[in-house]
Amino acid sequence: MVRLNDQTRDEYTNQVLSALNAGEREQFRDGFLALHPTEQVEIFQSLEKTKRKDVYQFITPSEFAQIFQGLDIDDQKQYVLELDEKYAAEMFNNMYADDVADFLGEIKEKAEKILNTMNKDDADDVKELLAYPPETAGAIMTKEFISIKAESNASEVIEQIREEAPDAETIYYLYVVDAKEKLVGVVSLRDLIIAPTSDKVEKIMSSRVVSVSVRDDQEDVAKMIKKYDFLAVPVVNEEGKLVGIVTVDDVMDVVEEETEEDFGEISAARGSLDANISSFTAAKKRAPWIVMLMFLGLVTAEVIGQFEETLEAFILLAVFIPLIMDSAGNTGTQALAVVVRGLALGTIERSSVGKLLKREFGTGIMLGLICMATLLIVVPLLYPTGGFLLAGIVGGSLFLTLSIATMVGAAIPLIINKLKIDSAVASGPFITTINDILGLLIYFSIATAFLQYLPQ
Q1: Which of 61, 19, 74 has its CA nearest to residue 43?
Q2: Which of 397, 374, 377, 375 is nearest to 450 (CA)?
Q3: Do 138 and 241 contact (CB within 8 A), yes or no?
Q4: SS3 182
Q5: Structure confidence at residue 341 as a pLDDT band (50, 70, 90)
Q6: Cα four-point dihedral sign 111, 113, 118, 123
Q7: What is the helix (H) or strand (E) element at residue 446, kind and residue range?
Q8: Which pTM value belongs to this model?
């Protein structure tokens, strides 16, 4: 159990809530504001509406801004309706511009009204962020950063930090700009502190600055921060001017968003993963894929229908249809997951595509050999009527099917990615259905070829 000054977390929380219930404003403030913002959010979300209104009375809009930023968007939409206009305006003025922009981007019909209640400078920063295309560096960057001049000395910069740090989202990196606000260097807080106070920034800074453009995709920005292990990365416009920074906490949100999006694509359930949406909305989101897969299922049925005579001649062949279909779909989906993950993480380069396909094909062959060897032993024991010939037909079909299925599962997302389409749209159900069709064609073709040798 987490301890806070010799008190358990539950004991401390109960003490804070008791002060709130008793209307003891100062005692509540002392206890509540001493907590980590995450714990403040948890306590606030546990309160009923009447008690939440007491919280608004006990803490200032600037203090509540920290809580509001920690809420998810659905809760923000709910709680903002409980605030009076003046309180809400002051709260937004004290939030980071990127967090305000994220919120207003979800309530576009009320965005202009809220912007009009904010301070002009704060509102202008938010409007700038809202003007950038969604899912770009410009849309997720924050405007609260510290920029310094190359001609300043270390002592002057430290004094500047004391003044500006309370409003900055991070101070661990300071970005150096020239007279035209163009990014020319970066200084870490560590280097600044250990440098002689008389040293100029241009002597301390590194001029080899890694930056991103306002138009860069947010996923590429996340990959860059991960690659360089940054806490933040500067964002420049087309003229090279420093206009913002993207921090690691923003990137974590991007990674979560992109992962959810890819998971939705790969499971053919994009847009319906949220447990809070209605059944109607979920069905509407999933219906296009289901209808398409239904028509592909008709192709599968047609394949079986084309080999009706083969089935009638040796009905035992029908027993192995689910085995062929399931194995093909599962193997293809595994290969799909490997490739989509590699593309998402940026670990698959153009030079390594051939090696990847070769490996997946080899994996399919090995899996096929293992399954074929197993079936050659099991099938004659379970179905002595068919004997080893039936085992060979099923085993050989599965060997070829798994070999091809891995290639299909690996190749399709690579092709889609080459066409500049999100590789995750090569969904698991889609790959599964394609491999089902191929597996059945292989199985019945081989069975038809050897039909005359099977016992009638």
Answers
A1: 19
A2: 397
A3: no
A4: strand
A5: confident
A6: positive
A7: helix 428-449
A8: 0.62
Work out whether the CA dihedral 305, 310, 311, 317 comes out positive or negative.
Answer: negative
Q: In sequence order, what DSSP letters do the residues of 131-147 get, joined into one string? A: HSPTTBHHHH-BS---E
Sign of CA dihedral 93, 98, 99, 101: positive
Spatial separation of the C-alpha atoms in residues 219 and 252, rounded to whole Å: 11
Amino acid at position 27, single letter? Q
pLDDT at residue 344 is higher than 70: no
Q: Are strands 183-188 and 212-213 parallel, antiparallel or unpaired?
A: unpaired
Hey, where are the domains in the chain?
Answer: 11-139, 147-263, 279-453
Q: Give the whole-angstrom CA distance, residue 43 versus residue 46.
A: 5
Q: Domain 279-453: give its CATH architecture.
A: Orthogonal Bundle (1.10)
Question: Could you tell me which residues are beta bridge partners of residue 153?
Answer: 200
E-assigned strands of 216-269?
Answer: 232-236, 242-247
Number of residues in the chain: 456
What tokens appear for 242 in the block? Answer: 């420093």
Average pLDDT, the chain: 86
* CATH no., domain 147-263: 3.10.580.10
> Structure tokens of 196?
């002689």
Q: Alpha-carbon distance 378 to 252, whole Å?
A: 49
Structure tokens at 79: 């709680």
Q: State how far the Cα of 213 lies from the Cα of 209, in Å rounded to an integer.
A: 13
With beta carbons less than 8 A apart as the criterion, state whether 409 and 435 touch. Answer: yes
Q: Which residues contact 43 (CB under 8 A, 6 or more apart)?
A: 13, 16, 17, 32, 35
Task: Compute the distance between CA of residue 346 and CA of residue 318 in angstroms, rounded to an integer.
Answer: 43
- CATH 1.25.60.10 describes domain 11-139: yes
CB distance 212 to 220 below 8 Å: yes
Q: Residue 242 is inside which H or E element, if any?
A: strand 242-247
